[in-house]
Amino acid sequence: MNQSLPSQRSCCFLFLSISVITALILLINVSFKIVLVEGLVFSVNGLICPLIAGLYLLALRNCSIKEQRHLLNISLLTLYLFCIGVYVLINLPAAEYMHDNPVYQIIFQDIPKKFFATTIAFALSFYLPHLLVYPKSSKKSPTPKQCMLLALLGGISFFGLDFFLLFSGTHLQSFKHIFIDSFMIASLILLLIGIFYLAFLLKYQNLLTPERGSEQLPLYHYFICVAIVVMLICLACEYRIVTIINKYMVLSASSLFFPITLVISTILGELWGYRVNLKLCLILIATQFTFDALLMGIVALPSPTFCNLNHFYNYIMLKRLPAASLTLFIAFISNAMLLNYLKHSKWNLHRPLRILIANFCSNSLLCLIDYGLLFGGIYPYDQVINLVVNVWHYKLFTTLITLPFILWFCAYMEKNKSLTLQYD
């Protein structure tokens, strides 16, 4: 179907949504990370919470009221999906030969507590104030002063609530010292954000705000956001190997949910075409690379001995970063190119056959490349081969199971031509 190119503001909305998703999931992953630098002992929350507030400030200035609300909804959806997905995967029975490194479990400890703390803090600091200041019926744009107050005060509140909900009752050493240092760093970052924002206003104070009220958000933006969350769930549990069906089948935990991203890629390719599918591929690779690089950088920061994840990440991250990027590129590019080529080929293949061929090839490439790079040298050769075969069978099964849904959804969308997300 021929679709018009997205507007500049819709691209800005997509970029901000992806950035907030990445920052929130990064926050959950390193919630209990404590940094020790030159006598300062602070939580990583003091770095990431102000970053999220800065992204929220950009959304307040560059997006309409309804786009802002969509961004907040996507943020809450991200927290729900990620925490529930990771919680399900880590509670599946682990394979007997899995290297159960105790350090590896630190990132997964207290997932319900991390979810509760981050979700409550985000809702009370950003979501609820936005609803109170700009109710659903409101059409007026926020003033520059309101934007700064909502973002900076929300950032301080977000950090404070998240810190107390996370660390209260954990018997953290030097709790007051860590909170004061973290609060000072968070306040300094927010102050710098406020200064840059005011400097921008002074320089571009006559910049006109575009008319807001008739905008339409492409539906595929939501699909891309869901695909990113699922991908980050899979990355979080990539080295975990589980057993299902009475311990008969051994699978990697990441393979259980990853077919959802391929379903989204197929839907985008069929409804919006090759360019949007390629856009999804590039966004997934860029998000994965950015997320892993930030995760490596944060974990590499020096920590007290009672809270140190460095040994685990030094062991896996340097291998995972290039392996995941290469695997995503090959799997999604092959799926997008095959869908596009078969759609315009001389054979005139029907949609179900096109989807089966494209998904079969991309899943096969994914299994052969990904697990060889990730688990080679960690587990014996025969166990890796057995894992690859089991995952390939599982992915083929999910392709067949999800095919009727893809066909129904594409037919429904083409019939109703509802390829944009209409605002109330």
From TrEMBL:
InterPro entries in the record: YhhQ
Sequence intervals crossing the membrane: 12-34, 40-59, 71-95, 115-135, 147-167, 179-202, 222-242, 248-268, 280-301, 321-342, 354-379, 391-412
Keyword line: Membrane, Transmembrane, Transmembrane helix
Protein name: VUT family protein
Top-level taxonomy: Bacteria, Pseudomonadati, Pseudomonadota, Gammaproteobacteria, Legionellales
